[in-house]
Design goal:
About 35% of the residues lie in helices and about 20% in strands. It has about 450 residues and is an alpha/beta fold. The protein binds zinc ion.
């Protein structure tokens, strides 16, 4: 394929190796055509440290607008469930344009933080009274538009949400904007698949919301349906975020959520089990040996008091995980990765836990692991710098005081653990710079629009 651009990097993370003095040839489709040693005279110097972009495996974009609204004690037993009530109240007034403006701002933040693609677990579908919009994909269009406008890669996961709890419990009134029956949902999925096919940085998957919100019969219908459209379509599900959810699942199915899912659906590598937080030893063993990826959202899980995913045991047994920013209490790659490690250090009273004998740098191990497995969860050919992968890159600033003069194998350790956020200069998606010198071309307008919506929603 025709070479469209060439990039030169003095230092780059190619596959698992730090390499010096590298030229990348990027083709007209936005993928890496070849990698050469030395500097091609035509190549643009990236002027920094080139690493792959990170994948954000779990986002509810609208929730960014109320981050910080629920950090006070409303009653002595505040939990995920009381947070959810605040979220329901906030979401009532959000129009399609509000959703677009909030998502666009969030995706700008994500790009600037180093996320080059996101899986949007999209469940705000209908009008405030629960009636569908004239176009059932109205709210999905806002997400697609926000991703197109900012340039971030998107895997859209329309959510199937039917019940308020196990055993076909009727939805609550505040859940009206989220609710679909199976047939209507499949119509939405089909419509979106035609739309998304046209965009080279987008894919479609599905997200049955959780075992409490969809029935086994529904899973048996929608999974073959999406896999017929694309055999590698991602399937994401909230699985075991809360102990109460585990107890309710045992009461209904006689098994724990992860146990039941593994026994009934044999998830493959394009399944992502979001918040597989509460696992017993047998579930850790079986999940780590399955192909499925655990979607962990460390800052949200800490913020909501969910619990701590048994990361060390899971990785030691060969498990795969990716990271997401979920409720967007933080939009910060470094924060997610170090929270993951620090939770383990505090539990184990040890240091340098999430790594292995081949890769002893915690920063490099975690970054590569999350990026590569994140790519599986979005069914996009990204997650590392290699021939055939999409040109989704971050350029780190080598002159940042906390990176300066560090040996190359310590760069990601320093970027994640010693910097508040990744010290990013430039961000490329599919061969196009979307952030240069820390800024996006449309940044001022995106922020102004967002502030206006916040003012409206906050009243
Ligand atoms: Zn979620």
């Amino acid at each position: 394929m025709t070479i469209k651009s060439k990039l030169y990097a003095e230092t780059a993370l190619i596959g698992n190796q730090w390499q010096k003095d590298i030229t990348l040839n990027i083709n007209s489709a936005g993928y890496i055509e070849s990698i050469e040693t030395g500097r091609d005279s035509q190549a643009e110097n990236v002027d920094g440290i080139l690493i792959p972009g990170m994948v954000n495996c779990h986002s509810h974009a609208f929730q960014r607008a109320f981050a910080g609204f629920s950090e006070y004690r409303a009653n002595p037993s505040d939990s995920f469930w009381s947070w959810r009530d605040i979220m329901y109240r906030f979401v009532t007034n959000m129009t399609p344009n509000d959703a677009y403006v909030v998502a666009r701002y969030l995706y700008l933040e994500m790009l600037k933080a180093g996320y080059t693609a996101v899986a949007e677990f999209h469940y705000l579908h209908h009008q405030s009274n629960g009636q569908p919009y004239d176009d059932i994909a109205e709210m999905s269009h806002q997400i697609i538009g926000a991703a197109e406008s900012t340039g971030i890669g998107l895997t859209l996961l329309p959510v199937l949400y039917t019940y308020a709890g196990f055993g076909h419990q009727s939805p609550r009134q505040q859940q009206g904007r989220f609710i679909h029956q199976t047939e209507q949902y499949c119509t939405l999925v089909e419509k979106l698949s035609l739309l998304i096919q046209k965009n080279k940085t987008m894919k479609l998957g599905i997200a049955p919301h959780s075992l409490r919100a969809v029935s086994q019969e529904q899973l048996n219908e929608v999974i073959p349906y999406i896999r017929k459209l694309d055999p590698q379509s991602p399937i994401h599900i909230h699985i075991a975020e809360q102990q109460q959810e585990v107890n309710d699942c045992v009461a209904h199915y006689g098994q724990r959520p992860v146990e039941w899912l593994l026994n009934n659906f044999n998830p493959d590598q394009n399944w992502c089990l979001i918040h597989a937080t509460h696992l017993n030893d047998e579930e850790i063993r079986k999940l780590s040996q399955s192909e499925a990826v655990a979607g962990i959202c460390p800052t949200t899980e800490a913020n909501l008091g969910d619990g701590i995913f048994p990361t060390q045991q899971f990785l030691a047994q060969g498990g795969s995980l990716s990271i997401g920013s979920d409720s967007h209490i933080a939009v910060n790659v470094a924060d997610e990765l170090r929270t993951l490690e620090y939770a383990q250090r505090l539990i184990k009273q040890q240091r340098s836990i999430l790594c292995d004998d081949q890769q002893t740098s915690v920063g490099t191990y975690l970054y590569r692991h999350a990026a590569q497995n994140g790519a599986l969860t979005i069914n996009q050919n990204v997650g590392e710098i290699a021939v055939g992968k999409r040109a989704d890159f971050i350029v780190l600033d080598p002159n940042h005081p906390n990176l300066y003069a560090k040996p190359v194998e310590r760069i990601l350790d320093a970027a994640i653990f010693a910097c508040e956020k990744l010290p990013i200069k430039n961000v490329m998606v599919s061969g196009k710079w979307q952030v240069r010198q820390g800024h996006h071309d449309d940044e001022n307008q995106i922020i102004d629009d967002y502030l206006a919506v916040l003012k409206k929603l906050g009243q």
